[in-house]
Design a protein that fits this description.
With about 220 residues, the protein is α/β, with parallel strands linked by helices. It has 6 helices and 10 strands, in the order βαβββαβαβββββααα. The protein has a 10-stranded mixed β-sheet with strand order 3-2-1-4-5-10-9-8-6-7.
């Protein structure tokens, strides 16, 4: 069976952690799920997947969002950056994952004065426009080896792919489907005002369409 390694950087959260990862792995059927959370010694148990203490050889790697910040580098991020640089299989980055992949491959990430939480329009290089959910405060200002293929008004480097390696990244959260957002409110991971910022929460591209099999 193929193996999916999730670098699970929201493992302390019930909704965007557990429910978000559950939404991500739905897009990789028939994969054994391996969960690596290098930022915490107390990850949640999701009821699916196997917790591991260090990366293992896998067929696909996904790096999730995080409450930590690439612009505020922590020692455990060195291990994630090493994984990125050595990875030879398809690698996908979401939000923090997008940022740390760009950083590890020679880019630059900075801290903005205010956080972003909104549904925003992404424009791809071919002219395609999609509506996606953003929540972040760090911004990639130099994508390094990564090629920029999509931008938003507030985020010039919103979607990237590598020109020669199987790497795709998005600054937005395609896994934040309406059910995940609503559960975030129910369990207390998100305040009512935070939930209201996303309206109906409906996005044009899911994990498959934005990362696994993008149309660009």
């Amino acid at each position: 069976m193929s193996k999916l390694l999730v670098v699970d950087l929201l493992a302390e959260r019930e909704a965007f952690g557990g429910k978000g990862v559950e939404e991500i792995v739905k897009h990789f059927p028939d994969h054994e799920i391996l969960l690596w959370a290098p930022h915490t010694d107390e990850p949640r148990q999701y009821g699916f997947g196997t917790r591991i203490d260090e990366p293992v050889e896998s067929d696909v790697v996904v790096i999730t969002g995080s409450r930590r910040n690439v612009s505020m580098w922590e020692p455990w991020m060195d291990d994630v950056a090493e994984l990125i640089r050595e990875c030879e299989v398809p690698l996908y980055g979401i939000c923090f994952g997008h940022q740390i992949i760009c950083k590890a491959l020679g880019g630059e990430v900075i801290r903005a004065t205010e956080s972003t939480a909104m549904i925003a329009e992404v424009t791809y290089n071919d002219g395609t426009k999609t509506k996606q959910l953003f929540t972040h405060q760090d911004h990639v200002i130099d994508s390094g080896e990564m090629e920029v293929v999509g931008s938003a008004e507030h985020c010039e480097i919103a979607v990237c792919k590598h020109p020669t390696r199987p790497i795709t990244t998005v600054q937005f959260h395609p896994e934040a489907v309406e059910s995940v957002l609503n559960y975030s409110l129910e369990c207390g991971d998100m305040t009512p005002s935070e939930r209201e910022a996303f309206g109906d929460g409906l996005q044009d591209l899911d994990v498959t369409k934005s990362l696994v099999n993008p149309d660009f």
